[in-house]
Each structure stands twice: as structure tokens, then as C-alpha cells.
Amino acid sequence: MLSPTSFIVLTLVLLNIALPLWRISLQGYEKISHIDTRRDNQNYSYIGHDHPFYHPTLLLAPASLALQETVHYGYNITYDPDSQKEWDQILDSPDGTGRIHLGPMHRTFVLTFYHQLHCIVELKEALVNRKNTWASPHHVNHCLQYLRQTFLCQASDTLEEGDFMDRNFETERFGPDVECFDWERVYQEVGAQWLLFSEWKKES
């Protein structure tokens, strides 16, 4: 039989093991729950407003992104073909440019994620190419308001050290890590669905 002192020590040891494991499992459950509760099993007609709020099958796991300065996606007043190609790829990849087709009639939707990227590209075009008629004042104003509102909606509470306005971006290249959704999964799924839609369109 354990002495009272041994019993207390053993209890504390077990608690020190059990509590961290419980916290880890709880965090994992919360992440999974957050993903799963964004979806529902309701059947939709995809007519009018009768459609899901989120993509019905795109279950996204958390991912990490290190914010950093980069030589890619340059902002150049003079034409830079390499930089332009990188910006163009944002809208050209994957096939379908963020458009998905859901329901029995393959109704077209676009993911907010891609709409945001589209607006960033249009703002860049408006700054470097005043002759681009697509980046019109009306279009640019729409993009400014759209990005402002969707950023407010996401309201990231990631803590960044210090004052970013005081940083020397030439020498301090890395910012904080941020928790995201797995954007590579979005690219894969949307690209695959576009191929399926393309096959359906050929056969119809």
C-alpha cells in the first residue's frame, strides 16, 4: 500500500501528464470542430439564395505562413516581364481562376479568396499601367472597398512585434508567423473541380 506522501506524489505526476495531453486533445478538437461546423449536410437546390454559405466539400486544415519580404511579385513602374508573369499567374492558376460550379445545373460561384487576389492584381495594374481600361476608377474603388470589408471580416488577431512602420524592410526581411487555412488545398481542389466541369461541358 502506498504511503500518503507517495500517493500525493503519484497523483501529481499523473496530473502533470494528463493535463497537457487533455489540453492538446482539446486544441485539436477545437480546430477540427471549427472546420467541420462551417459545413452542413443540408440539401440545396442551388437556385436563388438556396445554396450553402461555404464551399460544401472543401474542408481546410490550419496552415502556417511566415510573412516575409520577397523579390517576387515586384512593383515596377517600368515593364518587367518576369514580374508581370508572376502577377498574371495569380489569376491564371489554377484553371478556372477561382470559379467553381455547384449543384445539378453547375451554377457558377467564386471563392472570396480568389476575389481578394483578383483585386490585389487590379490595384497593382492601376498603379503601374494607367492605360489599362480594365483597372478603371470604378473597378479600383470596388476593389478597395471589397478588400477593406473582407479584411475587417477576418479580423486577424495575430500579434506582431514592435511597430512595422519602424522596420527596415531591406534588412528585417521576416515578420511573424500567421495561422492560415491551407491555401494549397484550395488550389488543388478548385483546379480539380474545374477539370470535372470542363469535361461535363464538353459532353453536354
TrEMBL record:
UniProt pathway: Mycotoxin biosynthesis
Keywords: Signal
Source species of the chain: Psilocybe cf. subviscida
One Pfam family per UniProt: UstYa
Record-given protein name: Oxidase ustYa
Keyword Metal-binding part of the UniProt annotation: no
Keyword Signal listed: yes
Similarity-based family: Belongs to the ustYa family.
Signal peptide start-end: 1-18
Coiled-coil ranges per UniProt: none
GO BP of this protein: mycotoxin biosynthetic process
